[in-house]
């Protein structure tokens, strides 16, 4: 379970920590998008991957000069429209895009009244919750939802990312976050591409 003051921790993150946290959630969600893209022959997993890589580069290479407004224009067309697909996979794929879009929103005209890290956190938790309900075939009560192993792993993952971000920013600390976020290629709902 997340610490009681979890959202307060997210509110206190520095801008680089927010982008790192969101990008870590998007990294972990990437297999959801890639599997959907490949299975339905739609979208562009390579563009998603490229966007992720640019966020990591901006966090680790001090001299990087990335125009995220242009990158956002390249990213938006690959976001799936749920009305065009009759498969469950479109929802976790869309959630992965919403999470990565939160990273873009943090850098391209950020709204001071919106905490994109909190939004990304809630979307990632929501992905797991909706997946568990889809598996159960019914709405689950909160106790059953939070007792499930996948949900526990989601909470542990998010808290671990926050813990990793408590150190001084350096290329090595960001690389450690990125490596951890890859989660051995397993997404927040257990999707693996290996």
Describe the SSE topology.
Layout: H1 6-11, H2 15-40, H3 45-60, H4 68-75, H5 90-107, H6 116-136, H7 142-147, H8 149-164, H9 171-182
Task: Describe the 3D structure.
The protein has 194 residues and is mostly helical. The protein has a single domain (6-179), classed as YP_001051499.1 fold like (Up-down Bundle), CATH 1.20.1590. Helices cover 66% and strands 0% of the residues. It contains 9 helices and no strands. Helix 6 packs antiparallel against helix 8 (149-164). The longest helix is centred in the first third of the chain and has 26 residues, at 15-40. The radius of gyration is 16 Å and the shape is globular. The model has no long low-confidence stretch (mean pLDDT 93).
List keywords for this structure.
194 residues, mainly alpha, YP_001051499.1 fold like, 9 helices, 66% helix, globular
Concise structural overview:
The chain is mostly helical and 194 residues long.
- Provide the CATH topology: YP_001051499.1 fold like
* CATH architectural arrangement: Up-down Bundle
Give start-end ranges of low-pLDDT stretches: none
Query: Biggest sheet, open or closed, and with what strands and sense?
Result: none
Terminal CA distance:
29 Å
Q: Tell me the overall shape.
A: globular
The SSE order reads HHHHHHHHH
CATH superfamily: YP_001051499.1 domain like
> How much β-strand is present in the residues?
under 5%
Mean pLDDT level? 93
Please identify the structural class as seen in this structure.
mainly alpha
CATH C-level category: Mainly Alpha
Overall number of domains: 1
